[in-house]
Design a protein that fits this description.
binds flavin-adenine dinucleotide, alpha/beta, FAD/NAD(P)-binding domain
C-alpha cells in the first residue's frame, strides 16, 4: 500500500526516512525550515559513527549502535571515513567503572575491539584502553547525497507551523497527506516521553603539525572528555561531559534562546575548562593543538537516571514522532514506522473463515 507522507525536518532522520520510504513506493515530501539539509544537530555534533563503546551503562543503546553501525556501513559506504587509532581509555580515578568491567561489558556485547597498538604520545592517569573501529561521519557528503537522492521532494526554507487531523487525512500547513513524521528531534512538538533540551558547546581544534595524525581519544565512563577527528584533515572536536552542556530547559524555544545569545567571554571560559580537563590526561594538548572555533547545538535528551540514547518512535493519530539519540539508529526508526504502518493495514483486514477442517477432511493419509 502506498501513502503520502509529510516529513518535518531534513536532519539525518528526516532524510534517511524519506529515501527509505520512497524506495518502498511511498510519496514523501520533506519540509525543512533551514536552507540546507543537516543544518541543526545532524551537522553540529561530534560526527562519531558509534559502535556502542560510549554506552557501557545502557544495553539497548549499545545493541542499537552495534547493529546500526553495520547497517550504516552497508547502506551508506561513502558517508563515513576510517579513524586511525581510535582509542577508548578508562582513567584510573575518574571513571564510574574500572577497566576490566568496561572490557568485560564490551566483550559480552559482541562488539569487536583490539588492544594491540603502542601509544606513542604522552598519556597520563589511565588504567587501560581498547582500540575500536568506530568511524567519522562525512556530513558534507551526506548533504550532497541526500540533495541528489531526494531532489525536489526536499523543500527548504519552509517552517511547519501547524498540523491538523481531519477525517482520514492530516493537513501540514494546510497541505493534505495520509501521515506525518515529525523528525525534528522534538523541536516541532515535544515527544510523548519526558525530555529536556540541552544547548551544547563543542570546540574545534586543529593540529599544529598537520603531518601528524593524532588518534581519536575518548575517556570513559562518566563525566569525562574526548577528542575526535572530523571529515576535514587535521581538524578535531573536543567534547566534555561536564562542560559541553549549557543548561537544561523544558522547551525547545528556551534552549534556542540561550544558544543564540552566547558570547565570546562564555566561549573563552569554556575553552579554559575543557583544555584543563583534557590536559589531565594529555599533558601536551596545548603544544599539539590550536583552538579554532566553537560549535553550538542542542541535544534533546530523555529524563532518565540511566544513560539511554536509544531511538524511540511514537504514534499519535496520524502523526509519528521520532526521538533519536544518535545517527546510527536511523534504521531502527524506519523499521518501527513501517511496522506501525503495516499493523494499521492489518487492523483494516477483515478476518476470513478458517478452511482447516475442510482441508483435513480432504487429506489423503494413505497412498497406494
Ligand atoms: C554536541 C552533540 C554531539 C553529538 N555527537 C554525536 C555523535 O558523535 N554521533 C552521533 O551519532 N550522534 C551524535 N549526536 C546526536 C545527533 O546529532 C542526533 O541524534 C541527530 O543529529 C538527530 O538527528 P535528527 O534528524 O533527529 O534531528 P536534527 O538534525 O536536529 O534535524 C531536525 C531538523 O528539523 C528541522 N526543523 C525543526 N523544526 C522545524 C519546523 N517547525 N519546520 C521545518 N523544519 C523544522 C531543523 O531545522 C532540523 O534540520 C550529538 C548531538 C550533539 C548535540
Amino acid at each position: 500500500m502506498s501513502y503520502s507522507i509529510a516529513i518535518i525536518g531534513a536532519g539525518w532522520y528526516g532524510c534517511h526516512l524519506a529515501s527509505s520510504l520512497d524506495a518502498l513506493g511511498m510519496e514523501t515530501k520533506v519540509f525543512e525550515m533551514n536552507a540546507r539539509p543537516l543544518h541543526e544537530a545532524s551537522g553540529n555534533n561530534q560526527f562519531r559513527l558509534h559502535l556502542g563503546f560510549h554506552y557501557a551503562r545502557h544495553y539497548n543503546t549499545r545493541m542499537q549502535s552495534r547493529d546500526g553501525y553495520m547497517r550504516f556501513m552497508e547502506r551508506y559506504p561513502s558517508l563515513s571515513g576510517q579513524v586511525v587509532n581510535n582509542i577508548y581509555a578508562v582513567p584510573e580515578q575518574d571513571s564510574l567503572m574500572d577497566f576490566l568491567t568496561y572490557r568485560l561489558i564490551m566483550t559480552a556485547s559482541g562488539i569487536d575491539f583490539s588492544e594491540a597498538i603502542d601509544i606513542d604520545f604522552k598519556i597520563n592517569n589511565i588504567e587501560g584502553y581498547l582500540v575500536t573501529e568506530e568511524r567519522v561521519l562525512h556530513t558534507e557528503s551526506a548533504r550532497v547525497y541526500f540533495k541528489q537522492r531526494l531532489g525536489d521532494r526536499l523543500i527548504f526554507n519552509q517552517k511547519i507551523e501547524s498540523i491538523e487531523e481531519k477525517a482520514d487525512k492530516v493537513y501540514v500547513n494546510g497541505e493534505c497527506f495520509d501521515y506525518v513524521i515529525d523528525a525534528t528531534w522534538g523541536h516541532f512538538r515535544k515527544p510523548p516521553m519526558e525530555v529536556f533540551y540541552e544547548p551544547t558547546i563543542l570546540l574545534y581544534y586543529e593540529s599544529k603539525d598537520t603531518r601528524e595524525i593524532f588518534p581519536a581519544l575518548t575517556f570513559v565512563d562518566g563525566p569525562l572528555c574526548s577528542i575526535y577527528p572530523t571529515e576535514e584533515a587535521s581538524l578535531y572536536t573536543l567534547s566534555s561531559v561536564p562542560h559541553t552542556p549549557i543548561g537544561r530547559f523544558s522547551s525547545s524555544s528556551e534552549a534556542r534562546a540561550v544558544r543564540n545569545q552566547l558570547n565570546q567571554e562564555f566561549v573563552t571560559s569554556k575553552v579554559k575548562q575543557m583544555e584543563a580537563q583534557i590536559a589531565h590526561y594529555v599533558p601536551d594538548f596545548n603544544e599539539r593543538f590550536r583552538f579554532v572555533a566553537p560549535q553550538f547545538s542542542i541535544k534533546t535528551k530523555p529524563i532518565a537516571s540511566y544513560d539511554d540514547r536509544s531511538c524511540h518512535v511514537f504514534k499519535q493519530g496520524r502523526v509519528f514522532s521520532v526521538m533519536s539519540g544518535k545517527i546510527d539508529t536511523v534504521f531502527f526508526a524506519t523499521e518501527r514506522i513501517l511496522s506501525m504502518l503495516e499493523s494499521l493495514e492489518n487492523l483494516q483486514f477483515a478476518k476470513v473463515p478458517s478452511m482447516l477442517r475442510q482441508e483435513i477432511g480432504s487429506a489423503e493419509y494413505f497412498q497406494g
